[in-house]
Every structure is written in structure tokens, then in C-alpha cells.
């Protein structure tokens, strides 16, 4: 079909520009599952333009990352259909496709029109609505860390850094090096081009501390929109890397001996009526609500580590002195603390949560982090004293494995009410099965050191 004016009017400008004078071949109707993997249907452009919704079974939210099915249904495994309707504001091109293709994220409701409570995007919307009901608008700015690695089709083989333009493999310990970024400049160029074609704004790209590790910063804004963008960016970055015979990975710890990849989240909250940052007084000083938000982080982050670090590999990132704080200390301009207050003017005063891994579902990671701050604002307690030294020397404050993390997740009743009881139940069931699957795997370390020695 050649896009008609009625169809174009529903789309954001970036999609309208992409379609002008083109035949729309395909539309990818997508949602994020618990892992953040895109699920949905691809359909011809003419069919999509004629229909108002489509169906998917609710069981897509009961799958582990391996594809197994958790027993999370409450009425037997009948897999009732959910109703998916397009969120037209998310329509964006898939510029790597050979055909003229749009991607559209869909809203997910049950057959009575109520939001599916265990759909990750709905969980984040729920948190934002809690803020809105108090007269607040939460603002977030995520940072995305990821690795470019050599192609790896054998799970038994260790992951290696990619080959750069110089013919040498990417080197480690080159943080902020421009020449290191230039080594895979063609991939970065494609990331920029794809992002521009999709209407996604990049604040900056820099070299991180690991071999082949990059950080991509996003502008601040609405939490749902920013989670949508991370969801799109993960696919965009993978596609850009594949064009150059390279993998992009968002594993928390893909390479032994290298730093892990985080998804740091910056938070601020503005008054819905005045538009002013509630963390700053008129004279520029810090408000009590600023301290309450930090307190909520300290009190409740341990119970949502299961969302911020969702896999067994996630906990390999939490290594002292390895660019991954494992504490709940807070400090101003202190990167050894789990909760950092960046340098800023009063209008931009914010709290940075440095605990989430890049392997988390962006909707759930942002929702969990905001939920901690929300509870802090409601409970109105003060945080512990500021840490002005090396917080790595402090005690570990977070669970060190997914099993312990799930125990804390299930025990925090206040957090359960905020995130939604049905979501928390489903998430726990799926993650428990996933961990059980992992425990059946015998690692190379066990075979090497235990086979003939114990």
C-alpha cells in the first residue's frame, strides 16, 4: 500500500517522513515480554492499516529466557487471548530492513479492557500513574552500557573482543578514549544513522572500561517513552553490529575479567502544576523530599534487585572495585556509592541509581527504581549519613544471587502493592523456574576442578 493521508495522520512525524512516497510492505506489531524480548506479529502493511487490534496469548509472559513455560496461570494453562492495540506514538521505521517496514509497540489489555497486570510496560505505567496521582511527574535519564564482541556461535567458547579497523582486537582499560571508539567507527556510524531514521535522540557515545565496551546516554524524559527507546535501541544496536560481522551484547558480565554493563538510571521529580523540580527549594537548596527519595532507595532497593539483576550472570557484575557498587551508600559525585548525586544545578538536581544491570528489562528496571523512590516520598524518612569516602570498603548491602533476591522481593509487601500483586506473583514463578533450569547445568569450572580432585 502507498500510505494514505488518514493512515499517515495517526503516525508520528518520523514515521510519516519515512513513508512518504513509499509502499508500506510490513508492520511489526510488538510488545516486550518479562525478559524484554520483542514478541508479536508481522503483517502486511495493508492489513495493519485496516485492523484496530490483534490477539496474543497471555502465556508469552510465562516463559523463561530459555523458552520453557512456568506454571504461572491461575485458571489452568488455557492461554486466553489478550487484546493488543497500537500505540501510534511509538510507530518508527526499521531502517535496517530490506523492505519498507514500521515497528509499533502495542498496548495490552484483557478481553474486558483492563490492562494486563504482568505486562512489563503496564507495570511501568502503573508506577507513573501513582506519581501522577500525587501531583508529580517522574523524569528519568538512562545510560546504556554494552559490549561489541566477536561472533560467537559456540556457547562453550569464551567471548572475545571484536576485531577493530586496525586489525587488532579491541583493548581494555581505554575508558573515554576516542581512538578506541574509532576502532569500530563504522558500527557507531550505523548506530547514529539508524537512530536518526527512527527519531531516537542520542546524548552521546563513549568508550567504557571494558574491551569493546561502549556507553550510550539518552536524554531525560518520560519514563515510559524512555523505556520504549531502550527497547528499540537494543535491537537497533544489534542490527548495526551484525552489519559488520560483530555481535552486540547486553549481558551484565559477558567477558571474564572485564567490567560488567550497567543501566544507570537518573531520577528527578517535577511538580505537575508548576513544572519545578521537587528536589530543590526556590533558593536552590535540597528539599526534604530529595532526602526522602534517597531514603526510599536505601530501604527498598534490596527487594527489587531481582528486577535490576534478573539472571544468574547478573550477579557476576557485582564485584567490589570493578565499576559496580554493591552497597546502598549515597554520596555527592561519588561513583563508589550505589546511589550517587551527580553534579548539577538546582533545576537538574537528581538521584542516580547505579545498581541496575543492562540485562534487565528496561520497563521493569525503571519501574522498580521509581517504585523505591515513590515509597521513600510516601514514607518520608531520612536516609543514612552521606558517604564521602570509598564506599567499596562498606559492607555488601544487596543479595548476591537470584535466589536470595527473589526471597527479598517476595517479602516486601509494600513493594508488592506498588508494583502489583499479580505481576509480582508471575515474575517470581517464572524466575524460580529459570533458576531451577540453571542449577541443572554443569559448568566448565566444575568439570575442571572437581572431576578428578574431590
Written account of the structure:
The chain is α+β, with helices and mostly antiparallel strands. The chain folds into 2 domains: 5-116, Ubiquitin-like (UB roll), CATH 3.10.20; 126-449, 2-Layer Sandwich (Creatine Kinase, Chain A, domain 2), CATH 3.30.590.10. The protein has 13 helices and 14 strands. The chain has helices spanning 5-9, 13-19, 45-50, 120-133, 178-183, 185-198, 223-242, 288-308, 362-379, 402-411, 413-419, 421-439, 444-450; strands at residues 26-32, 38-44, 54-57, 81-86, 92-93, 101-109, 136-149, 202-207, 213-218, 247-249, 265-271, 330-332, 339-341, 351-353. Strands 7, 8, 9, 10, 11, 12, 13 and 14 form an 8-stranded mixed β-sheet that branches. Strands 1, 2, 3, 4, 5 and 6 form a 6-stranded mixed β-sheet that branches. Helix 4 runs parallel beside helix 9. The longest helix is centred in the middle third of the chain and has 21 residues, at 288-308. The radius of gyration is 22 Å and the shape is globular. The chain starts with a helix and ends with a helix. The model has no long low-confidence stretch (mean pLDDT 92).
Mean pLDDT: 92
What is the molecular shape? Answer: globular
Poorly predicted parts: none
Which value, in Å, is the CA radius of gyration? 22 Å
Which percent bin holds the helix content?
A: 25-40%
Secondary-structure element pattern, one letter each: HHEEHEEEEHEHHEEHEEHEEEHHHHH
The named CATH superfamily of the largest domain: Glutamine synthetase/guanido kinase, catalytic domain
Q: How many strand segments? A: 14
- N-to-C terminal Cα separation, in Å? 68 Å
Portion in strands: 15-25%
As for the number of domains, it is 2
CATH topology annotation of the largest domain: Creatine Kinase, Chain A, domain 2
User: DSSP helix count?
Assistant: 13
CATH architecture of the largest domain: 2-Layer Sandwich
Alpha-beta classification? alpha+beta
Q: Note the main sheet.
A: 8 strands, mixed
Q: What is the CATH C-level name of the largest domain?
A: Alpha Beta
Amino acid at each position: 500500500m502507498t500510505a494514505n493521508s488518514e493512515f499517515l495522520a495517526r503516525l508520528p512525524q518520523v514515521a510519516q517522513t519515512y513513508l512518504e512516497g513509499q509502499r508500506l510492505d510490513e508492520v511489526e506489531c510488538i510488545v516486550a515480554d518479562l525478559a524484554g524480548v520483542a514478541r508479536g506479529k508481522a503483517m502486511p502493511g495493508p492489513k495493519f492499516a485496516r485492523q484496530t487490534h490483534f490477539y496474543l496469548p497471555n502465556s508469552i509472559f510465562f516463559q523463561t529466557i530459555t523458552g520453557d513455560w512456568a506454571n504461572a496461570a491461575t485458571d489452568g494453562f488455557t492461554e486466553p487471548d489478550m487484546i493488543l492495540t497500537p500505540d501510534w506514538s511509538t510507530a518508527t521505521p526499521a531502517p535496517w530492513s530490506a523492505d519498507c517496514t514500521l515497528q509499533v509497540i502495542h498496548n495490552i489489555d484483557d478481553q474486558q479492557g483492563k490492562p494486563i497486570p504482568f505486562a512489563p510496560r503496564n507495570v511501568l505505567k502503573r508506577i507513573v500513574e501513582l506519581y501522577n496521582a500525587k501531583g508529580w511527574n517522574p523524569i528519568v535519564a538512562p545510560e546504556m552500557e554494552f559490549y561489541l564482541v566477536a561472533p560467537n556461535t559456540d556457547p562453550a567458547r569464551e567471548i572475545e573482543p571484536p576485531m577493530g579497523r586496525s586489525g587488532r582486537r579491541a583493548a581494555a582499560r581505554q575508558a573515554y578514549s576516542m581512538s578506541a571508539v574509532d576502532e569500530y567507527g563504522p558500527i557507531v556510524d550505523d548506530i547514529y544513522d539508524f537512530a536518526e531514521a527512527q527519531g531516537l535522540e542520542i546524548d552521546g557515545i563513549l568508550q567504557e572500561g571494558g574491551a569493546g565496551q561502549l556507553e550510550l546516554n539518552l536524554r531525560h524524559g518520560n519514563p515510559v517513552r524512555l523505556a520504549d527507546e531502550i527497547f528499540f535501541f537494543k535491537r537497533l544496536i544489534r542490527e548495526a553490529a551484525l552489519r559488520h560481522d560483530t555481535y552486540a551484547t547486553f549481558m551484565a558480565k559477558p567477558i571474564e575479567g572485564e567490567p560488567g554493563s550497567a543501566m544507570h538510571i537518573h531520577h528527578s521529580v517535577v511538580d505537575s502544576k508548576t513544572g519545578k523540580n521537587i528536589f530543590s527549594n526556590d533558593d536552590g537548596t535540597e528539599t526534604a523530599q530529595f532526602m526522602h527519595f534517597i531514603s526510599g532507595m536505601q530501604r527498598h532497593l534490596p527487594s527489587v534487585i531481582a528486577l535490576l539483576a534478573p539472571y544468574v550472570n547478573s550477579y557476576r557484575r557485582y564485584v567490589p572495585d570493578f565499576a559496580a557498587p554493591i552497597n546502598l551508600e549515597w554520596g555527592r559525585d561519588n561513583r563508589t556509592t550505589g546511589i550517587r548525586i551527580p553534579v548539577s544545578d538546582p533545576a537538574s538536581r537528581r538521584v542516580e541509581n547505579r545498581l541496575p544491570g543492562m540485562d534487565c528489562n528496561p520497563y521493569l528496571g525503571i519501574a522498580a527504581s521509581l517504585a523505591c523512590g515513590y515509597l521513600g516520598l510516601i514514607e518520608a524518612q531520612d536516609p543514612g549519613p552521606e558517604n564521602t569516602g570509598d564506599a567499596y570498603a562498606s559492607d555488601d548491602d544487596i543479595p548476591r544471587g537470584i535466589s536470595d533476591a527473589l526471597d527479598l522481593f517476595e517479602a516486601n509487601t509494600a513493594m508488592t502493592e506498588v508494583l502489583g500483586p499479580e505481576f509480582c506473583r508471575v515474575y517470581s514463578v517464572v524466575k524460580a523456574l529459570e533458576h531451577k533450569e540453571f542449577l541443572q547445568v554443569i559448568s566448565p569450572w566444575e568439570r575442571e576442578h572437581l572431576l578428578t580432585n574431590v
